[in-house]
Amino acid sequence: MNNEYKVKHPKTGQEGWLDHKGNVWVPTGTGPEAHGRPHWDVMSHDGKSHRNVLPSDKIREATMDTKPKNYLVCKRVKFYAQKDEDAFFCWIKAIPCIKSYEGAKDVLYLDLVDKPLDYVDMKDLIALLHRYKINISQLEPFINEDNAMAAEPWLKQIQAKKYL
User: Fold this and answer.
1) How far is CA 48 from CA 16, 73, 83, 150, in A?
2) 3-class DSSP state for residue 129?
3) pTM for this structure?
4) In the chain, which residue ranges form alpha helices assigned H by DSSP?
5) Residues facing residue 101 across a β-bridge
6) Is the dihedral of CA 26, 70, 74, 110 positive or negative?
7) Tens of pLDDT, residues 6-56
8) Three-state DSSP class for 120?
């Protein structure tokens, strides 16, 4: 793309290229979710929504005002070695209630199944989030009768200490 057509999004200030609908396409770099190829954040003209366009043409849309209901958000996950990062992604793939994952920049979205989480699901998610210091409190909406015993100790700690 030609740099002479670069624009700044009027609300977010991000620099990118304008399309015919007034959306700004911002390159976000490369990463494992894009298989090492560049991908894009497409910011709406009003700044209220964006979508991530990956090289496979897979699109994840979100509205800034609301969180997707069946996603967990992993921000700025810290890995101490390449094998640590590999273990993280192997672990994600091994947890049955995570049906897919995708991300952009330093945020990874874990797409959960469209059914209530059971005890084992909750234990697995708590262990993953705790190990990688990801906000555990986002599991609260997924607590139900079947998994409450798994979540209870963590909820008490979060509420008492604002742990994460």
Assistant:
1) 17, 18, 37, 36
2) helix
3) 0.56
4) 82-94, 119-131, 148-161
5) 110
6) negative
7) 777 666 677 777 666 667 777 776 555 555 556 667 777 666 666 666 554
8) helix
In the block, tokens 């390159």 appear at 27
Report the C-alpha gap between 124 and 3 in whole angstroms. 46
Interatomic CA distance for residues 118 and 77, integer angstroms: 25
Which pair of tokens denotes residue 97? 């209630």
Distance, in Å, from the CA atom of 26 to the CA atom of 38, rounded to the nearest integer, reads 11
Percent of the chain with pLDDT over 90: 34
Distance CA 109, CA 90 (A): 15
C-alpha distances in angstroms, 33 versus 13, 53, 127, 147, 155?
25, 11, 22, 30, 31
- Give the whole-angstrom CA distance, residue 89 versus residue 83: 10
Burial 62-99 (b: 16+ CB within 10 A, else e): eeeeeeeebbbebeebeeeeeeeeeebeeebeebebbe
Q: Is 117 exposed, middle or buried (0-12, 13-18, 19+ CB in 10 A)?
A: buried
